[in-house]
Design brief:
This protein has six helices and five strands; from the N terminus they run H-H-H-E-H-E-E-H-E-H-E. By secondary structure, it is mainly α. The two termini are 31 Å apart. The relative contact order is 0.14.
Length: 173
């Protein structure tokens, strides 16, 4: 018997696993896992597990969270990732809006205290909206991947957000 190489064993095992678990059943299990991640069960949980993870990510990473792209390597039917994306980006947008209003208030107060210089007989406004507007780069991208991509679920989830994407080809993580 010739020696069995690891790569040969892995590819045969992967092939066997693919045929043992029926796709229709895999999709049902993935959908159930998504439901468990995204649903809050009253009297047992104060928040859905995905909401808790979103808060932990924000707390641990702080402002640096904007520098990341999050990749879910075993997304199944989406799991917690679409909910994570919504909650993280909603919090970042609210933070941006708060900064916008604080800056606007600061500018308004400054204008009351000082007279702006006039050009052509009109007061100048050096504080453009762009200086304190919400920053489009304050959103975070999330990417769904899986060895058995669940494209219909991913398309639906991604249609609700410009910051949620998927890779349609199988990714073996």
């Amino acid at each position: 018997m010739p020696p069995l190489h690891k790569s040969g064993f892995d590819s045969r095992k992967s092939s066997l696993t693919r045929h043992r678990f029926p796709p229709f059943l895999r999709e049902k299990v993935q959908a159930a896992l998504t439901l468990l991640w995204t649903t809050r069960f009253p009297f047992v949980q104060s928040l859905a597990p995905a909401s808790i993870v979103a808060r932990i990510l924000q707390s641990v990473l702080g402002p640096a969270i904007r520098e990341y792209t999050f990749i879910d390597f075993c997304s199944g039917a989406g799991g917690p990732t679409p909910k994570l994306e919504r909650e993280v980006n909603k919090a970042l947008a609210l933070e941006s809006i708060d900064k916008y209003h604080a800056k606007k208030q600061q500018i308004s107060t400054r204008r009351k205290d000082a007279t702006a210089p006039a050009v052509n007989g009109k007061p100048t406004d050096h504080d453009h909206d762009n200086d304190y507007s919400t920053d489009p780069s304050s959103s975070v991208d999330f990417i769904l991947t899986d060895i058995f991509p669940h494209i219909p679920s991913w398309k639906l989830a991604c249609s609700h957000s410009a910051h949620l994407h998927y890779i349609p080809s199988p990714i073996n993580a």
